[in-house]
TrEMBL record:
Name of the molecule in the record: Thioredoxin domain-containing protein
Pfam families named among the record's database cross-references: Thioredoxin_6 (PF13848)
Membrane-spanning intervals of the chain: 316-340
Gene3D superfamilies: Glutaredoxin
Source species: Elysia chlorotica
Origin superkingdom: Eukaryota
Keyword Flavoprotein in record: no
Record's signal peptide: 1-27
InterPro entries reported for this sequence: Thioredoxin-like_sf
Length: 349
């Protein structure tokens, strides 16, 4: 090859390399800025199935919006942002109206041609060991959502898509309160009917608080397992029915059977594993049928007689029982005679 040809090849490669570097630099610069999104751009992204993390905001009359823009700008280029997720912002009133939002700032995550919202929630972080100990967490990072004076913990992957999908699910408290009067009506535990599976914790003021743990599991199994709390001092019939000897005591009701949680460790991860299938290693017990009022009356009479027979009035109690038994026997004999005895014949026949 001639020297002039070599020079041309080298020059061409050099120009191509410089152009490529310029393109890469321009792309990097573009990715370091929030993309401006309007209604038309949003509809295009939704139709194409793109992933877009969008901040809706206003420049006038919203001090919190400026702070939100700064917060979103801070996560640009962070490795936690999944590949293929665009970050944008919009103050287009048409888009705000289209999505039906009345307040800003609002964070919206578009994925799979649908979106979830992250609205009205303050963001915070903490490395306070006292708070970590207070909440009972042994590992970090951990995401906690405080709402309605209770909190729920996130136990999924620490990445944007999963967390933003979890937040709307965790917005509502999932734990329900059950008692003597409402338990069977809501759970239908003894019949295994239509209300689904239930994880019920029997607890009280002197027991370890498991409300947050139940709430976290309730969010993870939303639509699959109902979670509830029974206050033991206020529900003596349920305590007696299920033979609760300690607290907290957790029972999983599934298809007419009950499985007692008897693992040595009681935390969110272990409880989730139990519901995922580990409950099959526990003994499957038949759910006891709730007692009727007649059952409680007969049991009360029996307990009363037992106490009398063991007390100072033992002889009187024995005499009373014998008198009742004899009277009952006489009534039965008289009834039998009236049925067996043939009617007397009339005179003249």
């Amino acid at each position: 090859m001639k020297p002039s040809v070599w020079r041309q090849v080298v020059l061409f490669v050099s120009v191509a390399a410089v152009s490529q570097l310029c393109c890469i630099a321009a792309a990097d610069e573009a990715t370091e800025k929030l993309v401006e999104i309007d209604l038309e751009t949003w509809q295009e992204a939704q139709a194409e199935g793109r992933k877009l993390l969008l901040l809706l905001y206003k420049t006038d009359g919203c001090d919190l919006c400026a702070q939100a823009v700064e917060e979103v700008n801070m996560i640009l280029g962070q490795p936690e942002i999944p590949y293929g997720v665009e970050l944008g912002k919009s103050e287009d009133p048409a888009l705000l109206s289209k999505l039906g939002f009345k307040s800003v700032p609002t964070l919206v995550f578009l994925r799979d041609k649908s979106y979830v919202t992250y609205d009205g929630v303050e963001l915070g972080k903490s490395e306070d060991p006292a708070l970590l100990s207070k909440l009972g967490f042994k590992s970090v990072p951990t995401l906690v959502f405080l709402r309605d004076k209770s909190y729920v913990t996130y136990d999924g992957e620490i990445e944007v898509e999963s967390m933003l999908h979890w937040i709307p699910l965790a917005a509502e408290v999932t734990v329900r309160d059950l008692g003597d009067k409402s338990f069977e009506h809501l759970t239908q535990a003894s019949t295994g009917a239509t209300t689904g599976d239930w994880l019920v914790a029997f607890s009280g003021p002197d027991c370890r608080d498991v409300t947050s743990m139940l709430d976290s599991v309730g969010v993870s199994f939303k639509g699959k397992v109902n979670v509830a709390l029974v206050n033991m001092p206020r529900s003596p019939e349920l305590v007696q029915r299920f033979q609760i000897k300690h607290c907290p005591h957790l029972i999983y009701f599934r298809r007419g059977k009950m499985y007692r949680y008897d693992l040595p460790t009681l935390d969110t991860a272990s409880l989730r594993s139990f519901l995922d299938g580990f409950y099959k290693n526990s003994k499957a017990e038949n759910v006891p049928i709730p007692k009727s009022q007649f059952d409680y009356i007969t049991e009360g009479v029996a307990d009363f007689l037992k106490k009398q027979l063991r007390g100072d009035n033992r002889n009187v109690a024995i005499a009373a029982v014998c008198a009742v038994a004899v009277s009952f026997l006489v009534v039965i004999i008289l009834c039998c005679r009236s049925v067996v005895e043939p009617p007397s014949k009339k005179k003249g026949e």
